[in-house]
Amino acid sequence: MRRAIALALENIRTGGGPFAALVVKEGHVVALGVNQVAAKNDPTAHAEIVAIRAACDALGTFRLSGCDLYSTCEPCPMCLGAIYWARPARVFYAGTAADAAAAGFDDAFIYDEIKLPYRARRIPMAELLREEGNVVFKEWAAKADRIPY
Amino acid sequence: MRRAIALALENIRTGGGPFAALVVKEGHVVALGVNQVAAKNDPTAHAEIVAIRAACDALGTFRLSGCDLYSTCEPCPMCLGAIYWARPARVFYAGTAADAAAAGFDDAFIYDEIKLPYRARRIPMAELLREEGNVVFKEWAAKADRIPY
Is A120 near chain B, with CB under 8 Å? Predict the structure, then answer.
C-alpha cells in the first residue's frame, strides 16, 4: 500500500489524478495503475481499471484469481464492478469513498444514484426494443463454443 | 438500437460476447463498442466501456455531454459507473440485467453484492493505512493547476 501511495503522489506531480493501484500475486507486483482520466481523455482510466487491465494483460487472462488489489482509495462503483468481473482474491484500500468525496470526486454521489429507481436518477435511462434485442442472448445460448465469463 | 443489436450478433459470430453499444451525438454515431473480454483478456472490455473510451478519444474529451449511449443490454454496475463518470445525456438499453443473468452473465449478482456490507461480500475488502493514504488528497487539494473531473 505504501508503494501505491507513493505512486499516487508521483502521479499528482506529473499531472494525473491522486489515485494509484497495484495488483500483487504470490508476493510479486504484477501490474501498476495510476489515474489517467484527464491525461488520456478516458473517463474509465481510474487507477484500479488501469491496474486490472495491465495485470490481465501481463497474466494472459481475464480473471485475477489468487491476486490481491491494493488501491489508494476505496473503489468507485465502476471500479468495484471491474473488481467483481476480474475476481481478485482480496481488495485493500486506504482512503474511503467519503475521503474521495471530500476531495471533490463523485464516488459517493454515484453510489447514491445506483440505489435510486431509474426515473429518479440524474442520467435518464430507458428500455428500448427489449424483445428485438433478446435475439443476441438466444444466439449466444445456441453457440456451442462460447467462452463463459 | 437496431444497429447495436446487429453489431452484437456480428460480435458473437466472430468470437466475442453478445453485447454492443454505440455513442450518438447530434444524430451521428461517434463511436462503436463490442464486448472484447475474452478476445482481449480484458475484464473491463464491456461494450459500453469500449464505446465510451472510443467516443472520448474521438471527441478529445473525458465527458460525453450531449451524447446518447445505446447499449444492447442494461449496463452492469461497472458500466453504469463509467456512464456516470462520462455523463452522457441519456442511456437506452434493450435487454435487461435479468435477461443478461438468464443468459449466464453476472450483472444481477454484482448489483446484489454492491448492496451488501463489505463483511458479507464474496470478495473481501479491507481498509489499510487510511491516515497515511490521505496525504494524496491533501497534495491534490494543494495543487493549484489540477483538472477537476
Answer: no
